[in-house]
Amino acid sequence: MLWVNLGLICLIGALLVGLASLLQPRTAAVGRVLVTLGLQIGGVLVVTWLLVQRGQAISRQLPPPPGTETAIFAQIEAPAVASLLLIIVALVWGTGFGTAAAAFAVGAKRPRLALLLGVVSLIWVVPTFLLAILAQDLQTQIYNLVQVNVSGGYATFSAGQLAWSAAVLAIRPAAYAYRQGSILIADQSRQLFVRTALSKGLPWGVIVRRHIVRPAAAGLLQTGSSSIRLMFGSLPLVEFFFGYPGLGNLLLNSLGVSTGASSQPPDPGVAIASAVVLASFLAILEALIRVLTQKADPRVAEAASEAAA
């Protein structure tokens, strides 16, 4: 019942924060973010517990021995750190590269380059597991060619493992960020204030940075939020394919999904903890993006101020 209690605590805490926000309108903007975060985490806790317990009831597994729950946090600590590092690196590579490529394609004013990047971004439709297989095949080809192991090992945390896993995890979010970002930036480039800046003789690079990318920042942040959801959806699969010792791999192993002789019996406590921590990472990142969006777009900030008043 540990997870149900934690879920109820999150839900009750979210309701209390919501009531406090109603009584204190000045805190409405912050309260809205905290309420959403609490409801997301609490809902994930309760729903994940129900699903895992239902699966255990169907398979008639014996209950875990006493004291198992106290060791769960020790089991997920290192994988949580590994997954957090993977998420950060993939987020920076994916959304950063995709957004930068979109800004460069618009700023360069080269239709052929924009067409080439648009064709490359079609990799967005390729399933993540195929990208992981292609990456592993590339590792094999490099080893056969130069007799150098570039994979960084298997089922061990290393810089090589982190780089390969992050690269595969970031490909589809990068393509998505480019496709959406190029639309937003191109739309901003057709605005009247951009023409005014051009008529004043400002360099095109300065115009792109100050008068195109900056006004589109709120939309780009929302695009980044969608890219993050894509990334989290593929995280367990990428970690499983590369044997990366993160929460996604631990989640699948705790549900009984593993390779060959390394098969282990299901562990519902670890499965719930892994899913909840991953969902918490996602909810926290989305909350941060909502705050940054309010800071980046004055209209959002004004709407929040009017609602608070």
In short:
With 309 residues, the protein is mainly alpha-helical. The chain is built from 12 helices and no strands.
Question: What does this protein look like?
Answer:
With 309 residues, the chain is mainly alpha-helical. It has twelve helices and no strands. The chain folds into two domains: 1-64; 79-307, MetI-like fold (Orthogonal Bundle). The longest helix is centred in the N-terminal third of the chain and has 37 residues, at 72-108.
Which terms would index this structure?
79% helix; MetI-like fold; mainly alpha; 309 residues
How many β strands by DSSP?
Answer: 0
Tally of separate domains: 2
Work out the helicity level.
over 70%
pLDDT averaged residue by residue:
76
Strand-pairing-aware structural class: mainly alpha
Largest sheet: none
Note the run of SSEs as H and E.
Answer: HHHHHHHHHHHH
Overall, the morphology is: flat
Name the beta content range: under 5%
Task: Kindly report the CATH topology of the largest domain.
Answer: MetI-like fold
Separation, N- and C-terminal Cα atoms: 41 Å
CATH architecture of the largest domain: Orthogonal Bundle
Give the low-pLDDT segments.
none
Q: What would you report as the Rg, rounded to the nearest angstrom?
A: 23 Å
